[in-house]
TrEMBL record:
Source organism per UniProt: Nippostrongylus brasiliensis (Rat hookworm)
Chain segments annotated as transmembrane: 20-40, 52-69, 90-112, 132-159
Keywords of this entry: Membrane, Transmembrane, Transmembrane helix
Top-rank taxon, per record: Eukaryota
Protein known as: Transmembrane protein
Length: 180
């Protein structure tokens, strides 16, 4: 199968391309290590009651680590100016999945904070550890399902290493759902 047949042509000069490579790789690497530090710092504060926000932050950091790891690989492929291949479909799917999962985790944190702020006595009973663990498992399943769907022929969110672009390539059955 041919990947990236609709990849846009590079739109920058070679000198600008080198600057973009250095800057974006630097930002991705620093962000990757910042998320590792965040993961380590929030681990001590996490729990299943009012401190569940820190548990959510651990999951947000894990998703961000996946995102930045993929971004580092993507930017290395951009630096090498390689042709588009299957790995770019995986990198595109991982990027979009990380984004969607992070949005879901952010909304979860908002609802959790609202519940504990407005219902401080009822929230610990309703949002017990079993409920919260089940909910996080459901988010994990959502993450894996989205990754599988975005890699499958149903949709096609792809990274283009020659132009550092991401776009929806395939016109699969589920592609209109991505074009929200």
């Amino acid at each position: 199968m041919t990947y990236g047949s609709k990849c846009p042509e590079p739109f920058m000069s070679e000198s600008l391309r080198k600057i973009v490579i250095v800057e974006t790789l630097f930002i991705c690497i620093v962000s990757f290590f910042a998320q590792l530090a965040m993961l380590r710092a929030t681990k001590r504060l996490s729990g299943w009651k009012s401190d569940f926000s820190f548990t959510i932050m651990i999951f947000m950091s894990a998703v961000a680590i996946q995102l930045y790891f993929g971004e580092i690989i993507s930017h290395i492929r951009f630096a090498l100016a390689v042709d588009t291949d299957l790995i770019d479909k995986i990198l595109g799917a991982a990027f979009m999945t990380s984004f969607l999962t992070d949005v879901l985790l952010s909304i979860t944190m908002i609802f959790h904070r609202v519940a504990y702020t407005f219902y401080p006595f009822a929230a610990p009973r309703v949002l017990n550890s079993t409920v919260l663990k089940t909910y996080l498992c459901m988010i994990g399943l959502f993450h894996l399902a989205m990754l599988g769907i975005l890699i499958s022929p149903l949709t096609g969110f792809i990274f283009c290493p020659k132009s550092l672009a991401r776009f929806i390539e395939d016109d699969g059955v589920a592609t209109p759902g991505l074009r929200w």
